[in-house]
Specification:
This is DUF2269 family protein. Keywords: Membrane, Transmembrane, Transmembrane helix. Helix 1 (about 5-35) runs antiparallel to helix 2 (about 45-80), helix 1 runs antiparallel to helix 4 and helix 3 (about 90-120) packs antiparallel against helix 4 (about 130-160). The protein is built from 4 helices and no strands. The protein is mainly alpha-helical and about 170 residues long. Helices cover about 75% and strands about 0% of the residues.
Length: about 170
């Protein structure tokens, strides 16, 4: 029989999971709001500091909490009666979490670095550059998509839609 968590350990792991998702969600909200606010910067220094704050939020409130959410979610699935691929709602959460993390690794860090370097080099006039505008819009939309995906995952957690995944009939 597979390892199962006792109630105390399960509650501790659930607490870690929930606190991590709250940090991740809060980080995504901050990124979204700062991304919108960036357009209102009054000078190059303010623009640079907004982007520096976004970079710090990405490094502290998004990357590590996302990793903890992923790991704790997998452990909760495997070490409880839910299983990792027994229910559609768990698979949906696993796929969404994985996609968000992969998207972040592939794009968000590079986008933020580009914006930060451009603001450092061009100052306030960076806001007028087409590449800066499209990259900042991409970052804002990605933050909105993160928020939407986490909202969907939260709803999926509580409503547990689609039920159990049915095993296919074995051919003999």
């Amino acid at each position: 029989m597979a390892y199962r968590l006792n109630l105390r350990k399960k509650n501790l792991l659930v607490s870690i999971h929930v606190l991590s998702i709250v940090a991740w969600f809060g980080g995504a909200m901050c990124m979204f709001m700062l991304g919108l606010y960036m357009k209102n910067a009054k000078n190059g220094e303010q623009l640079y500091y907004i982007l520096s704050d976004m970079h710090l939020i990405d490094a502290t409130l998004i990357r590590y909490p996302a990793l903890v959410v992923f790991i704790s979610g997998v452990l909760l699935s495997v070490w409880t009666q839910w299983g990792l691929v027994k229910y559609y709602w768990i698979v949906i959460k696993l796929v969404l979490t994985t996609l968000i993390i992969i998207f972040g690794i592939m794009f968000l860090g590079d986008w933020l670095s580009f914006l930060l370097e451009t603001a450092h080099h061009y100052g306030f006039t960076a806001l007028q550059k087409h590449d800066f505008q499209t990259t900042s819009l991409s970052l804002i939309l990605a933050s909105a998509m993160n928020i939407l995906a986490m909202t969907i995952m939260t709803c999926v957690t509580y409503f547990k839609p689609f039920g159990k995944i049915k095993k296919s009939a074995k051919s003999t």
